[in-house]
Write a structure and sequence with these properties.
With about 140 residues, the chain is mainly beta. The chain has one domain. Helix content is about 5%, strand content about 55%. The termini are close together.
Length: about 140
């Protein structure tokens, strides 16, 4: 079993609004989406010669009120990590975080949500983006 170890690198990626982002749009009449959702950001960079692409998607839904966030990490074009978080106005939250994807050379890429923003709107997430680090992997 592998365990996350020490942080070896902090990455400050450039997040971009994806082409299919709907943060400026109006949802379809039959949709359970609140206005301005779903949002989609992505970033791409290299770590020790490996290509990394991260997608972050999220939405607010109604009936009852719900929020959903997902992170997808692709390494060298292959899905290597996916996690998410779901909350409901009825009082429950389910969270599988942080997003982790194994890299070569005994390392892992870790994406950590920063929930201390002024809101979950696109501008809030871009102002305080998720933390991205490379960590050593310790074999247990």
């Amino acid at each position: 079993m592998a365990r996350r170890g020490a942080v070896t690198q902090v990455i400050v990626p450039t997040w971009e609004i994806a082409e299919d982002d709907q943060s400026g749009g109006t949802p379809a009449d039959d949709s359970h989406l609140s206005g301005g959702y779903p949002c989609h950001l992505h970033t791409q960079f290299e770590v020790n010669g490996q290509s990394v692409h991260i997608d972050r998607t999220w939405a607010n839904l109604w009936g009852p009120g719900r929020s959903k966030v997902e992170w997808h990490i692709f390494v060298d074009g292959r899905l290597a990590g996916v996690v998410g978080k779901l909350g409901c106005s009825l009082g429950f939250t389910m969270s599988i975080e942080p997003a982790v994807a194994l890299l070569t050379h005994g390392q892992a890429l870790v994406v950590t949500n920063r929930p201390v923003r002024g809101g979950i709107g696109l501008e809030n997430v871009l102002a305080i983006p998720d933390a991205v680090t490379v960590e050593a992997v310790d074999e247990a």
